[in-house]
Amino acid sequence: MKTAQELNSLALRTRRIWNEDAYSPIDIFAIVNGWKDKKITIVKYPLSPRISGMCTKENEDIVICINSTTSYGRQRFTLAHELYHVLYEENMQRVICDMNMNGDKSESEKEANQFASYLLMPYDALLEYELDKGKWDIEKVIDAEQFFQVSHQAMIHRLVSDGLISSDIANDYKAITVSTLAAKLGYGKELYFPTEKNRQYFTTGEYIRKVEKMAEKELISEGKREELLMDAYRADIVYDFDEEENLND
Question: How far apart are CA 237 and CA 133, in angstroms?
Fold first, then answer.
């Protein structure tokens, strides 16, 4: 099994590929959707409550499915987790990942969790945050998870793993209604809630680009283009409907 140092180094190398520094929060969905060097399709779908996500890889084509009924913070972590499987595990074809971040897990799942944590919160970045902000009280925990845009569970798990808080304190922090406290600290609640129901079926990335390129080159008919886009839950493209534009009318 890879060491924590090796996984942190791998996470930092991934950030460098993306031209991201080792300290700032990253918009991982935007980065992966725009990563033209890799043929990655992201599908948001309401999976079983026991499953956080899954991924498949066939030659160079990669599909990552994210459980859209989990919180936005957890979805970001899941994407980072699945990236480890598809980018850095040899002979990987299909992996299904459960929700539990603790307990008995395979080496592969443990490595993917740790890689995801370091990708979203590099070791030095979290250490610098601690030195800058001081003691890890609950307000600081929420500040950090909002800064790095990770779920409360992922933040607590990381702090315990790094020996920054005890398991007893972690249990106390898990017991709070985190969205309410975050709101009182001036933050929005979006990080702690799932995708809105009308957006829980949604596809982005390589699949959409391929469909549009085939249509542009007249390799498929307009009817087939629309069919393929509808299969990907992208009626907004088919009907040229932009929710934000309509809201601003």
Answer: 45
Question: Residue 106 and residue 131: Cα distance in Å, rounded?
Answer: 33
Whether the model clears a pTM of 0.90, i.e. scores above it, the answer is yes
Burial-class residue 181 by CB neighbours within 10 Å (0-12, 13-18, 19+): middle
* H-helix or E-strand spanning residue 80: helix 72-88
Chain centroid offset of residue 206 CA: 17
Q: Contact, 151 vs 145, CB < 8 A?
A: yes
d(CA 106, CA 153): 20
C-alpha distance from residue 106 to each of 49, 75, 97 (Å): 20, 21, 11
What's the pLDDT at 243?
56
For helices 107-120 and 72-88, give the axis angle rounded to 10 degrees. Answer: 120
pLDDT tens sequence across 177-187: 999 999 999 99
DSSP assigned state of 196: P
Phi, psi at 151, each rounded to 5°: -70, 160
Helices (H), the chain: 4-17, 28-33, 72-88, 107-120, 123-133, 138-148, 152-161, 167-174, 178-184, 206-216, 222-231, 235-238, 243-248
In the block, tokens 């592969």 appear at 108
